[in-house]
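ok so i was messing around last nite and threw this chain in just to see what happens. nothing serious, just curious
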Amino acid sequence: MASPRTVTIVVLSVALGLFFVFMGTIKLTPRLSRDAYNEMKRAYKSYVRALPMLKKMGVSSILLRKSIGALEVACGIVMTLVPGRPKDVANFLLLLLVLAVLFFHQLVGDPLKRYAHALVFGILLTCRLLIARQPEEQPPEKRILSVNGDEQPLIHEAAPEKGKMKVS
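result:
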C-alpha cells in the first residue's frame, strides 16, 4: 500500500497539473471561455503598461501572455504525467511563475479577490515541493553480529540512546 506521503504528492501533482493546463489554455485560446480569454488579454495589457521595461525589451502583452500560458501548459502536463525529478522542476518553475503573477497583480493595484487564486495555488505548489523534497522515512534495520555462533545486536544498537536510560 502506498504511504500517505506518496498519495499526497500524487494527488497534489495531478490537481495542480490539471489546473495549470486549464489556466494556460485559457491564456492561449478563447475555445474554453471567450470571456476569460478576453479578461486575460486585458490584464496582460495592463501588466505591460505598468512595466515599461518590458516594452523597451520588445515584449508585447501578446508575447508575455502566450509565453506564460505555454509555460503553464507545459509544466502542467509534466506535473500530471511525468514521474520523478522533472515533476519537481516543473513545480519550481510554476512557483516562480506564480510569484511573477502576484508581482504583476500588486504592480497594477488589483484587489485581493483578483489574485487570491494565485496565492492559494502558490501555497499548494510550495507544500507539494516541500513534501516531495522530504526524505522518505525508512524503518531502522536490525543488524546482527554473529559471535561464536551467538547472534547479538551491534554495539551501537544495543546501547541506549544518549541521554535515555534503558529500562528492562
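not much to say yet. The two ends are 35 Å apart (CA to CA).
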